């Protein structure tokens, strides 16, 4: 049953992608209702399957692939909602592709990392905040890439104005810093709850998570300070946003990828 649900979700994500990409290339209007309907159905199947993968059995299976699929679901959900107000068509194929890949991997390459969060609600709060902060800042990294691409096209005098599917550069920049501001706030609370609720946060084998997360937090704070006080824009913003997201990815997934996937 899970395999059928996963296949249905992947096909629906693929349908949304297949609707977007040709319109981007041909610079014609995108059938937004088709994309939205496909994405909504894919998200329903995705959520259904996540419930089976994570909550079935004894405890919660927070394996690296299940967590990656959960994060992809959160990002896809937020971006699908944003689609209703903003022309983010350039980013949606990337988001939906990762969602489909992560969902398929979690389904067909099962791994296990059983936890019992029902006995530790404080840890549940910390993990939930970590998931939302990482998802938000990952969206910020995607916006930074889109900003850099649009800026490059404009500087090389490519005619972007006639493409109805691309958003204005300044609007993307404003949204980018709103997202990073929210994500940094969530990351701040995540670190605070980590120090308060997780007693062995810097124990052997876990210290890299706290250290890399703190470094990422500093990078995002510098980025926000540089933008609002020094007027930073362009490539510097992109590099800072990507560096922060990379450090968080290494913090959240680095050691567990080696332990669960490479070493089995």
Automatic annotation (TrEMBL):
Superkingdom per UniProt: Bacteria
Statement: the UniProt record of this protein carries the keyword Membrane: yes
Segments crossing the lipid bilayer: 34-55, 62-82, 88-111, 123-145, 176-198, 210-228, 240-258
Keywords: Membrane, Transmembrane, Transmembrane helix
InterPro entries referenced in this protein's UniProt entry, alphabetically: Cyt_c_assembly, YpjD/HemX
Signal peptide: none
Residue ranges annotated for the Cytochrome c assembly protein domain, each copy included: 39-262
Annotated PANTHER family: INNER MEMBRANE PROTEIN YPJD
Protein name: Inner membrane protein YpjD
Gene behind this protein: ypjD
């Amino acid at each position: 049953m899970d395999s059928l649900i996963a296949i249905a979700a992947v096909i629906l994500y693929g349908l949304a992608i297949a609707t977007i990409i040709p319109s981007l290339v041909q610079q014609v209007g995108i059938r937004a209702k088709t994309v939205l309907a496909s994405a909504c159905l894919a998200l329903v199947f995705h959520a259904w399957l996540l419930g089976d993968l994570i909550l079935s059995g004894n405890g919660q299976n927070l394996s690296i692939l299940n967590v990656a699929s959960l994060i992809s679901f959160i990002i896809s959900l937020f971006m699908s909602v944003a689609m209703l107000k903003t022309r983010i068509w350039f980013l949606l194929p990337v988001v939906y592709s990762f969602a489909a890949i992560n969902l398929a991997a979690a389904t067909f390459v099962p791994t296990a990392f059983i936890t019992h969060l029902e006995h530790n609600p404080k840890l549940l709060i910390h993990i939930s905040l970590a998931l939302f902060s990482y998802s938000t800042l990952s969206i910020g990294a995607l916006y930074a890439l889109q900003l850099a691409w649009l800026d490059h096209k404009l500087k090389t005098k490519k005619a972007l104005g006639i493409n109805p599917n691309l958003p204005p550069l300044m609007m993307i920049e404003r949204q980018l810093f709103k997202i990073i501001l929210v994500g940094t706030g969530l990351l701040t609370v995540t670190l605070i709850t980590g120090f308060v609720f997780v007693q062995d946060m810097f124990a052997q084998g876990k210290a890299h998570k706290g250290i890399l997360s703190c470094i990422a937090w500093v990078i995002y704070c510098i980025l926000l300070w540089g933008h609002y006080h020094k007027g930073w824009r362009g490539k510097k913003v992109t590099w800072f946003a990507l560096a922060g997201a990379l450090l968080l990815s290494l913090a959240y997934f680095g050691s567990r990828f080696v332990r669960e996937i490479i070493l089995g």
